[in-house]
Write a structure and sequence with these properties.
Strand 3, helix 5 and strand 4 form a beta-alpha-beta unit. By secondary structure, the chain is an alpha/beta fold. The chain is elongated. Helix 2 runs antiparallel to helix 3, helix 2 crosses helix 7 and helix 3 crosses helix 4. It contains 19 helices and eleven strands. The protein has a seven-stranded mixed sheet, sandwiched between helices. Strands 6-9 form a two-stranded parallel ribbon. A two-stranded antiparallel sheet has the order 10-11.
């Protein structure tokens, strides 16, 4: 039993003490924790701010709401008029006629749109630089995307054709505005080839399309950094014009995050008299031949230029981090569980979004108190492994920060470096089945534990007083609890494969057995 207060050792140190080679599948890299948290934001409330909002709710909000309803009704009538009269071409999209463009760009965009912003407290909006024409830049990039009001600001100061998620059709007023514009709709659940073809057709066309207006980050965040750009706007090698919006981050009334509902953001914004904002048109960025051939390089260089002008950092976070944060909250985990830096997970660990979703759901089943950390007790209670030394070694290797608990990010790194190599190694799975279950069938006794000590929790209590005496028994018990049907008294290879697919951590624990510990060592 591990005494209280003893720091867990790394797996490499444990093997060094035994003068054993470190198996190549048992090396876990240590990546620094993210310094930025783009998807976390809370308004710092003070007595003065409470008083300011309370006074605004009593005086400003009722007047503004009435006037906004009037402006909204007129806007919806005009957008419906334009939408009903659009003529759709063979590609399923419509180019606006001159009078329709006048209604959407001038009447709705400049007159009603500016009135709408004025009623929300955006009384003075300073613009810097010059908006490029379609001939100069076929794509306009808007960032950072931090507020629902960005769409209205863009509608006034960066009008064009829009690339928007289909789910935005359900947003009040914004959905109507997008329908009346030359919008390309993106359905993330379906094939996006049609979207890419239409985007390519427009940016390379000689027709009088408006510049495509795109939020390249594809998500909202706190605007304290620039997250990864999606590559759709950079695949065609056409000139782009970056435009950045500078909204006040402190107190951040207009910024939306998972900690503020849309209703709260709208109420806070309406209750404050004035919100300063600046719109900066940056020079047109024309890609080099190298950037045309490499969209990732193109997007990275454009993002660096914008960040330099904004004087903010760039991060390896992206839209998947936002989605994983939402999943973490649904699973009862803290928001920080989704703060992974998806760019690092994808590029360095080769973990895609679907794999990370699966890992988060598995992590949530281990994390019994939902605090976003796994302890040694969490692992042992879930896996019910009877050998204390093996479980401690496995935990020590995952705990790269040496703090006695594992974050979801550390769990993902351990999966990529430690668990996945065994999970994808069919030879090892066959060998493990042969040594543990098939040998137990021949001998009738099962593989005896190679440690005389039973497994304890860190508080000194037994994990399970009724733990099976053999590892074969442990695995058979795990199959029964996982709902895996075993025909007869011995599990088949298919049963074993089904179990380790559901709980691949068991493969790492099995690799500690003397019969399997030499598998994959350096020099084999």
């Amino acid at each position: 039993h591990k005494p209280q207060g003893v720091q867990l050792l790394s797996f490499a140190v444990l093997f060094e003490d035994r003068a054993m080679p470190v198996p190549k599948h048992r090396r876990v890299r240590q990546l620094p924790e993210p310094e930025l948290q783009p998807f976390y934001f809370r308004v710092q409330w003070t007595a003065l701010r409470y008083f300011q909002v309370a006074l605004g709710v009593l005086i400003l909000v009722p007047i503004r709401v009435v006037l906004l309803l009037v402006v909204s009704m007129v806007t919806v009538l005009l957008t419906n008029l334009v939408t009903w009269t659009l003529t759709y071409g063979p590609h399923g999209y419509a180019m606006q006629k001159p009078w329709q463009r006048f209604v959407t760009r001038t009447v709705i965009g400049q007159w009603l749109g500016r009135t709408f912003l004025w009623l929300f407290g955006f009384l003075w909006i300073d613009t810097h630089g010059r908006r490029a024409s379609f001939r100069e830049a076929q794509v306009t990039l808007i960032c950072p995307h931090s507020s629902i009001f960005d769409c209205f600001i863009v509608g006034v100061y960066a009008q064009g054709g829009y690339l928007s998620l289909k789910e935005n059709l359900n947003l009040p007023l914004i959905g109507s505005l997008l329908c009346a514009s030359e919008t390309i709709w993106v359905d993330e659940k379906k094939n996006k080839d049609g979207v890419q073809q239409e985007l390519c057709r427009r940016v390379s066309s000689n027709e009088s399309w408006q510049p495509m207006v795109i939020f390249p980050e594809g998500t909202v965040h706190s605007a304290r950094s620039l997250v990864e750009f999606r590559l759709g706007a950079f695949k065609y090698g056409v000139p782009v014009q970056p435009v950045y919006l500078r909204l006040p981050v402190d107190p951040g009334w207009t910024i939306w995050s998972y900690h503020h509902s849309m209703f709260a953001v709208v109420l806070h914004t309406l209750s404050v008299l004035y919100h300063p904002i600046d719109v900066h048109y940056l020079p047109v960025y024309s890609p080099s031949d190298e950037e045309k051939a490499n969209p990732q390089l193109f997007s990275s260089n454009v993002r660096a230029k914008i960040a330099e002008r904004m004087q903010v950092e760039v991060s390896d976070h992206g839209r998947p981090d936002m989605d994983l944060t939402g999943l973490a909250l649904k699973l009862g985990l803290p928001y920080s569980a989704g703060n992974l830096e998806y760019g690092i997970m994808r590029d360095q660990l080769q973990l895609n979004y679907q794999t990370l979703k699966t890992l988060m759901k598995r992590f949530a089943t281990f994390d019994t108190n939902k605090d976003g950390f796994l302890t040694l007790d969490d692992l042992t209670v879930r896996l019910k492994w009877p050998l204390e030394e093996d479980a401690t070694q496995f935990f020590a290797l995952c705990d790269t920060a040496r703090r006695g608990k594992i974050t979801f990010r550390e769990y993902c790194i351990a999966y990529a470096d430690l668990i996945r190599p065994y999970e994808s190694d069919e030879d090892f799975i066959n060998l493990a089945y042969d040594k543990v279950l098939r040998s137990s069938e021949k001998s009738g006794s099962g593989v005896a534990p190679h440690s005389a000590q039973p497994l304890h929790n860190t508080n000194g209590s037994h994990v399970s007083s009724g733990a099976p005496a053999s590892l074969a028994g442990v695995l058979m018990s795990a199959m029964s609890k996982a709902g895996i049907t075993v025909n007869g008294t011995t599990a088949s290879y298919g049963n074993f494969k089904q179990l380790v697919t559901a709980q691949p951590e068991l493969l790492v624990l099995l690799s500690f057995l003397p019969e399997l510990s030499s598998y994959g060592t350096d020099g084999d």
